[in-house]
Amino acid sequence: MAAGAAGAAVALWPGPAAAQQAAGITADRIGQTTGAASPASPAGSQDLPGRAITTYETRHANSVAAQQAQARAAAAARVRAAAAARAAARVAAARAAQQQAAQQQAVQQQAVQQQAAQQQATQQQAVASSPPAQPATAVASGSPQQIATSMLGSYGWSSSQFSCLDQLWNRESGWNPTASNPSGAYGIPQALPGSKMASAGADWATNPATQIKWGLGYIKSLYGSPCGAWSHEEASGWY
User: Fold this and answer.
1) Could you tell me the CA-to-CA distances from 50 to 39, 54, 143, 169, 178 in Å, in that order?
2) Which of 157, 175, 220, 231 has the smallest CB count inside 10 Å?
3) Residue 181, SS3?
4) Whole-prediction pTM
């Protein structure tokens, strides 16, 4: 009986193989029951370096993209600055051209004004130097020499002055009422310009009497007498 009991006890105790199998089944059941994950396998632990590399590459790409964007923005800013500088230069050049044109116009206007003032002064001087208009008097008809002889007394001269007058105007014009000179002198007394004789009459261009009247007044105002004018003519070649 004791021996039977011992045999039964031996039969009921599991051997090593059965114990391992039982332990494996128990662990599987515990895992299924609790839902606990088994320890990470060696293959799972190898993914960590890959994820780190991917993160670095992403950050590097983002940094490069940001640098490229900054470079493009800087280039665009330089282009805008250059365009603005060119526009400012064009505006400055246009203003300078306008100022130069205005200065040139002012200089031209000043020159025109000065020329006009000079012409006016010359005209005033010519008018001042012209003898005063003589009152209309009855004159004898005939040749220019006869007309001049008849007019000597109205200027306070005797007939002796005619010889000087004859030599003077014979040299100047040959007593020709239409005699002209390239200088602009005209008529018997060679008035310069001929239009000066308009103070003696509107018909100064063709009427010997009008020209002689103006010429005698000119001689009286500058030389006192025909002989005084002839002396100047002989000394200077003009009167």
Assistant:
1) 20, 6, 137, 129, 123
2) 231
3) coil
4) 0.44
